[in-house]
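Structure first, sequence second, as always.
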C-alpha cells in the first residue's frame, strides 16, 4: 500500500516559520529561549544580533540581550553554524558542540605551508582548553599560552588576514569552539577575549539528529541540501544523515512546492492563513539566512535588491507578510536613530502605520528615538 505525502505550499510553510520565529507576534520568553527558536543569532555584528533577538520580544532592549550574555550567561557568544560568530543558548551548547564537531570538513582552504595536520590540530585544541580553563585571555595572551604548551610552530605568523599575518593556530579557532573548549569572553577595552564555556560536547550522531529535528521544526519543510547550505556542510553527507533519520522514523517526507522535503515526524500541521505582519530584520537575521527556497523568500525585485550576489544577510530587510519587500538602514547620532526604509512596492496606509511602529521598536531596542524616512537606501551591503 502506498500513501501520498501531504502537500505543503510556500504560504503555509512561510507562515509557520514566521510564527515559530516570533515574527508575527513577539514573545515574553527570555533571550535564551528566543535564540533557541532561531537556532542561533548571527553575531559577527553584535548590534545586529541584539536587534535580531530583542525584536522578537515584547519589550526587550539590547541591554536585556547583553545581560543574558555577560551577566547571567544564559547566552554564549561562540562560533556556530558555518564557522561564523553566533549567540547560542548556554543550555544547548553540548548539543551544538557535539553536532558541529561531527560535521565532516570540506577541502582545506589554507595553503600547504600554512595548514596544520590533524595531530597538530588536536595538540592546539588541547592547549587552548588547558589555557582557558578558568581564564579570560586576549588573542596575544592565548597565543603565548599555546606556544608555551606546543612549541613555536603554533605561533608562527603565517596566516594572511586583513593586511596582516596571524599566528598559525588561529585557523583552528572555530574548531576549538566546536569542540567545546573556547568561546568569547567580555571585551577588555577594545580587545577581544576568549574563555572556556565549560561544556562537554554531546555524542555526535545523536547531536546531529537532534539538530536536524530542531532545524526542521524551525525552518521545515526543508531538504538535505537546504540543511547542508545552512551549515556549510557537504550535501551528500546531509542526504545520508536525513536518510538515516527517516529510517529511524524521526523525520517524514512531505511534498513542498511540488518537490520532496522533510519535516519532523508528526509535525505536519500548518497555519490556514498566510503570514500578516511588517517587520524590519537586521543584518544576517537567522530567518533570512535559513529560510528556503530563497527565490520565494526574496521574490521579484527583492532577489536583485536585497541579496548581495545571491548571499542573504548582507542587507537588513523589510519583511511584509512573510516575504522580503525592501531594504533598510539605520544610523545613530546620540539618542536619535535615523531609519531609512526602501520599500520595493507601495505600502498602503495600514502597512505604513505598521512600518512606523516597527521603526519605533527598532529605536527602542537600541535605546533611542526614531527618525523614519521612506526613501532610497544608498548604503551598500555589509562586507
Amino acid at each position: 500500500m502506498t500513501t501520498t505525502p501531504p502537500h505543503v505550499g510556500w504560504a503555509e510553510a512561510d507562515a509557520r516559520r514566521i510564527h515559530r520565529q516570533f515574527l508575527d507576534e513577539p514573545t515574553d520568553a527570555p533571550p535564551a529561549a528566543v535564540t533557541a527558536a532561531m537556532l542561533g543569532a548571527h553575531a559577527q555584528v553584535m548590534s545586529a544580533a541584539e536587534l535580531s533577538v530583542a525584536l522578537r520580544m515584547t519589550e526587550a532592549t539590547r541591554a536585556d540581550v547583553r545581560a543574558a550574555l555577560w551577566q547571567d550567561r544564559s547566552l554564549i557568544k561562540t562560533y556556530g553554524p558555518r564557522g561564523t560568530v553566533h549567540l547560542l543558548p548556554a543550555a544547548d551548547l553540548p548539543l551544538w558542540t557535539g553536532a558541529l564537531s561531527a560535521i565532516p570538513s570540506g577541502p582545506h582552504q589554507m595553503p600547504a605551508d600554512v595548514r596544520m595536520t590533524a595531530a597538530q590540530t588536536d595538540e592546539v585544541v588541547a592547549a587552548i582548553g588547558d589555557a582557558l580553563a578558568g581564564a579570560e585571555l586576549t588573542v596575544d595572551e592565548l597565543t603565548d599560552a599555546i606556544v608555551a604548551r606546543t612549541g613555536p610552530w603554533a605561533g608562527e605568523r603565517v596566516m594572511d588576514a586583513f593586511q596582516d599575518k596571524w599566528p598559525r593556530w588561529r585557523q583552528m579557532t572555530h574548531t576549538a569552539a566546536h569542540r567545546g573548549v573556547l568561546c568569547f569572553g567580555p571585551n577588555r577595552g577594545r580587545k577581544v577575549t576568549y574563555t572556556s564555556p565549560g561544556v562537554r560536547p554531546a555524542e555526535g550522531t545523536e547531536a546531529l539528529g537532534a539538530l536536524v529535528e530542531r532545524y526542521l521544526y524551525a525552518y521545515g519543510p526543508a531538504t538535505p541540501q537546504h540543511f547542508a547550505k545552512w551549515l556549510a556542510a557537504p550535501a551528500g553527507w546531509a542526504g545520508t544523515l536525513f536518510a538515516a533519520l527517516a529510517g529511524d522514523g524521526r523525520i517524514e517526507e512531505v511534498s513542498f512546492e511540488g518537490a520532496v522535503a522533510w519535516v519532523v515526524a508528526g509535525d505536519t500541521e500548518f497555519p490556514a492563513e498566510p503570514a500578516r505582519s511588517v517587520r524590519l530584520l537586521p543584518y544576517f537575521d537567522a530567518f533570512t539566512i535559513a529560510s528556503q527556497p530563497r527565490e520565494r523568500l526574496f521574490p521579484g525585485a527583492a532577489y536583485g535588491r536585497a541579496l548581495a550576489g545571491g548571499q542573504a544577510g548582507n542587507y537588513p530587510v523589510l519583511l511584509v507578510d512573510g516575504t522580503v519587500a525592501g531594504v533598510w538602514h539605520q544610523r545613530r547620532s546620540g539618542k536619535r536613530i535615523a531609519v531609512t526604509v526602501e520599500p520595493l512596492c507601495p505600502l498602503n496606509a495600514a502597512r505604513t502605520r505598521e512600518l512606523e511602529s516597527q521603526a519605533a521598536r527598532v529605536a527602542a531596542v537600541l535605546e533611542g528615538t526614531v527618525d523614519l524616512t521612506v526613501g532610497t537606501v544608498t548604503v551598500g551591503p555589509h562586507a
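Margin note: The first strand starts at residue 7 and ends at 8.
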